[in-house]
Amino acid sequence: MTKTKLIAGNWKMNGNLASNEALLRALLQGMGTPACAVTVCVPAPYLIQVQSLVAGSVLMLGAQDVSAHPQGAYTGEQSAEMLKDVGVRYVIVGHSERRQYHGETDDVVAAKTAAALAQGITPIVCVGETLAQHEAGQTDEVIKRQLAAVIQVNGHCIQEIAVAYEPVWAIGTGKTAMPAQAQAVHALLRAQLRHTAGQNADKVRILYGGSVNASNAAELLAQADIDGGLIGGASLKALDFLKIIAAAH
Ligand code: PGA
Question: Which protein residue's CA is at the shortest distance from atom 2 of ligand 1?
């Protein structure tokens, strides 16, 4: 089944009003009509700014995290309803940096996924093994466990999510998984989704992330089960991000 690929930029904790505007203007100018869907997941203080800059364009607004709770006394959190209110279409959920530095468990990730889905925002659910797990041969077991928690809570509408496989050892390190190695993990994730969603599993975009750049994107995106990319560092450079977008068809 052919589906449009998704290229998602993850700005992480980078940018300011001036650099965001310069980056977005360069992207909008260079992008034309891409063959793929494109979103930029920006820091919360800049959601409104970015929304006004991308309004009416093909570039969609994304966020980097969402609260598992609908509203109330949760200082510092943003609800899915608020994100929707300001025009967010995609939200990254369970990024390894949140799992690692902010104690997000599989259950929290599953609840955040549900919160996003309830507001019609597409969660980009991140899974991936650490270097130690990779070296111990535990990759399959770890990613299966991470996805199973999300399926358990969201099984009835699992075809509405996107998944991002990001080996932790490949994030920001310049080391990418070999395309065939990534494809093998993506195929496992697809099979797991199929178990619950049947043929609808083919509708789920499974993105690859971890040191994707302008020169390795095409080969990764050519793999059968790689339906897009979650791009960190390279999404902050207009020319590199544009090349990755152009490679996604
Ligand atoms: P990277 O980050 O492209 O800089 O490796 C990817 C991510 O963490 O989403």
Answer: 232
Please report, to the nearest 10 degrees, the dihedral formed by the alpha carbons of residues 98, 100, 105, 106 taken in order.
80
> Structure pTM?
0.97
Q: Are 235 and 11 in contact (CB under 8 A)?
A: yes
Check pocket membership of 171 for ligand 1, CB cut-off 6 A: yes
Active-site residue (options: 134, 160, 166, 186): 166
CB 94 within 8 A of CB 112: yes
166 given a catalytic annotation: yes
pLDDT in tens, the chain (249 residues): 568 999 999 999 999 999 999 999 999 999 999 999 999 999 999 999 999 999 999 999 999 999 999 999 999 999 999 999 999 999 999 999 999 999 999 999 999 999 999 999 999 999 999 999 999 999 999 999 999 999 999 999 999 999 999 999 999 898 888 999 999 999 999 999 999 999 999 999 999 999 999 999 999 999 999 999 999 999 999 999 999 999 999
Q: Distance between CA atoms of 163 and 208, rounded to whole angstroms? A: 9
> Measured from the CB, is residue 236 less than 6 Å from ligand 1?
no
Amino acid, single-letter form, for residue 140: D
